[in-house]
Amino acid sequence: xxxxxxxxxxxxxxxxxxxxxxxxxxxxxxxxxxxxxxxxxxxxxxxxxxxxxxxxxxxxxxxxxxxxxxxxxxxxxxxxxxxxxxxxxxxxxxxxxxxxxxxxxxxxxxxxxxxxxxxxxxxxxxxxxxxxxxxxxxxxxxxxxxxxxxxxxxxxxxxxxxxxxxxxxxxxxxxxxxxxxxxxxxxxxxxxxxxxxxxxxxxxxxxxxxxxxxxxxxxxxxxxxxxxxxxxxxxxxxxxxxxxxxxxxxxxxxxxxxxxxxxxxxxxxxxxxxxxxxxxxxxxxxxxxxxxxxxxxxxxxx
Length: 302
Fold this sequence. Notes:
It is built from 12 helices and 6 strands. By secondary structure, the chain is an alpha+beta fold. The protein is elongated.
C-alpha cells in the first residue's frame, strides 16, 4: 500500500480520529477524544513543533556501506531508535474496530518482529493492564533488566525517616512491632510490606498468600528490617535486621511457585535460566549489604 492508500483506509476505520496527514493535534485541539489536551489545547502542537528542531546529521564523507541504526537501551538492542507510543481507550478515540486488548495483541508482536519496543496504554478497566502484561509476556522477553529502586534504602538515606520492611505471613510479631514503632516515632514513617496478589499467580491460589510471604523471606527474595532513628539518640543501633540468613537453595523453587515467573521457563527457557541465576546471586548480595549497613550504623566505641 502507498502512504495515501493507508490514510484513505484509516479514515474509514478510525472513528472520531480524522487521520490527518500530520498528527500534530491541530484538528482535534481542545477536544475529547483527541491528543489536543486540556486548557488551550496546544500540548500536542507544541510537542510536534519541538520535534521539528531535532535533526540527524549524516556523515557523508565515509566508506560506502549499510548504516548501523541499532540502539542499545534498557539492556537490549533495538533495530532502529523508534518505539510505539502508548495508546489507550481505543474505542473512545479511534472507533469500534479494536478494543484495548485486541490492539495490544496486534501491537506487541508486531513491534517485537520489527525489532523495536512497544509501549502499551492504560485505562480504567484493570483488564487492560492485565492484557497488556500478558501480551508482553507472550511475545517478548524484553522487560527492563536493570534492578528496581530500593525505596526503603532511599528513605533511610535521609537519616530522619522511620523505615521498616515487613511480611506479615513470615513474622506477624515483627509487623506489629514495626507498626507500633512507626506510630510512636516523632517524624515521617514508612512501612513497606510484601503483598502477594492475584497477578503473581501463586500455585494453589491466594489462599496461600501468607505462606508465600514466609517462603519469600526464607529464600531471600524479600528481606525484613527496621530503621528507627530514635534509637540512635539513645546510643543504640538504629538498624535491625529481622530476616535470618536466607536459604538460597529454595530461591528458584520460590520463583517456580508463581506463574508470573514459571511461565518464562516455557516461553524463553534460556533467558529464564539466566535471569533466575542472576536474581539468586542478587538476593545474596542484598542480604550481605544489609549486614554491612548494620555494622555501619552500630554505635562507635569510645
